[in-house]
Amino acid sequence: MRQALPLNARNIMIEKAYHDRDGQIWIDGEFVDWREAKVHVLTHSLHYGSAVFEGNRAYEGEIFRLTDHSQRLVNSAEFMGFEIPFTRDQIDEACRETLAKTELGDAYLRPFAWRGSDMMGVASKNNRIHLGVAAWHWGNYFPDKMKGIRLTISKWKRPAPDTIPCKSKGAGLYMICTLSKDSASAAGYDDALMYDYKGRVAECTGAHIFFIRDGEIHTPTNDILLDGITHDTVIKLAAKRGYTVYKRDIYPTEMPHFTECFIVGTAAEITPVREIAGQDYTVGDITKTLAADYDALVRGKIAL
Ligand SMILES: Cc1ncc(COP(=O)(O)O)c(C=O)c1O
Fold it and tell me: For the domain bounded by 145-298, which CATH number is listed?
């Protein structure tokens, strides 16, 4: 009997599950058939959340800011207390080879490193560290994104820097992102905005946030947020256009005073926001200009 297709959070049929696709995945220096790219159920990172990962995008065959992503993966592992047994350059190369195998021009890449199944228990030192890279076609993270998305406010707060290694793109940090995203979807929103442990505006579940008022741009950057590669790119693009960008603490009481808002990330690219929990924003000229610039940049039509 044919098995029912899996369902996602909104009970929509998923066409092709991620474990059941054609292709190859790079693992520890070799390509493995996609369906055979498995780990044991007693894998340390699966139980204790210590895997680290990246999300890269390739455009027309070129991986955007590849080395910055590979370096961040190396750093994430260090924050998590382990060393990836491949250099940054080898990670770059693994990503390029994986992309080449897919024969895709535009693709999403997922490099990831994890503690294996050599030992079980909270202690980790005898576990071997593994590295994998997968790539697949992934279009817009938000369908029809230039219409603007709707955000709700998450009940979960981004943690303090002395409670978790928050500069690491570590799997364990994403449990509150998944909870936030799923409850936002269940309430009919596209995503959730998270505040931090001090009550400041922090970020969305996989993207940083920018606001605009009187032609000036404001964005949170601090010691608890992931050092965003798109965030950095957008600040440089804004500077090139001559916009003033303030990187500073933003509190929720300010949000009604902004006129435009957008979120940024490798997956989300630049996505305008049209509502945050009942507060409306315009998909305005600055957002549209930066979104067009970002698209031109990643496709090599302009330089930074
Ligand atoms: C929680 C979180 N914030 C922000 C971002 C955006 O980071 P980047 O622009 O480096 O992809 C991501 C994506 O990696 C993320 O997962």
Answer: 3.20.10.10
Residue 266 alpha carbon, nearest atom of ligand 1: 11
**Residue minimizing CA distance to atom 12 of ligand 1:** 206
**Distance (Å, rounded) from C-alpha 163 to C-alpha 184?**
25
Do 14 and 6 touch, CB atoms closer than 8 A? Answer: yes
- Closest atom of ligand 1 to 230 CA is 9
Ligand 1 centre distance from Cα of residue 80 (Å):
17
CATH number for the domain running over 24-136? 3.30.470.10
Report pLDDT digits (tens) over 166-191: 999 999 999 999 999 999 999 999 99
State pLDDT tens for residues 71-106. Answer: 999 999 999 999 999 999 999 999 999 999 999 999
* Residue intervals in the chain for CATH 3.30.470.10: 24-136
- Cα distance between residue 60 and residue 103, in whole Å: 10
pTM: 0.94
